[in-house]
Every structure is written in C-alpha cells, then in structure tokens.
Amino acid sequence: MESKKYTTGDRFMLLRKVKGFKQEEMADILKIDPKTLSKIENNEVQPKIDLIERFVDVLNISIEDFFRFSENNIFHNNIHESSQFELNNTKLVSSDEIYLKLLEEKEKRIQEKDKLLEEKNKLIESLYLELKQNKI
Q1: Could you tell me the pLDDT band of residue 3, with boundaries at 50, 70 and 90?
Q2: Which CATH superfamily is domain 1-81 in?
Q3: What is the model's pTM?
C-alpha cells in the first residue's frame, strides 16, 4: 500500500492539531495573520522557510521531521487516507473525537511529567538535607 503524500499545508494543519494548538493561537505565536495560516493549511500559499523554522521551533520538532512527516512517524500513530485517526489503537473519525483524545493524551503526559518532577524534587530535598547535616 502506497503512503499518502502530505503537502506543506497538510503538515502545518496536522502537526498543529496533534500538538494541541488552535489555528488562531498558532498564528499569534508565529506572528502572522490567522487568514495567512488558514491559506497555508489549505495549500493556497506556500510558507517561507523562516516561517517553517519558527513553526517547528514552537512544536519542538526538527525541520527534518517536519519534511519527513509521514503517517507512520507522528507520535507513533497513523493518519489514514480515509481521514481516520488512530490514537492508542482507537480509531477516531470526527475532529471532536480527535481533539478530546489528544487532550486526554496531553493530560496523561502532563501528569506523568508532574510525577517525575515531584520525585526529582524529593530527591533534591533529601540530598540537600543530607549535605546540611554533614556540614553542621
């Protein structure tokens, strides 16, 4: 089966949505008019390379990953030609389903990071107390 070819506009739209940004929010961050971003995502205009560089910086991905974007490398999930999106082995069809699943996934990752940060802070605190005790 042949892989779908994604345009620059497709990449902008799909990566923006997967990372949880609204179109207006991303346009504001990139300091461009939301209409311009809409035209990019609808393949009406091609963005200049400096805009692509700012976009990938915001999303914290490499420019190589942006251009190598495929249905197999986006968060280890698949985007199928039938416009279905698969997240954690759950097929989603509507944009609302996709958005809600992505929010759930984002919240789960935030909780995991918060737990790691809490463990790190406890370790730092115990090391600090140990150092303090040894110096007194």
Answers
A1: low
A2: lambda repressor-like DNA-binding domains (1.10.260.40)
A3: 0.52
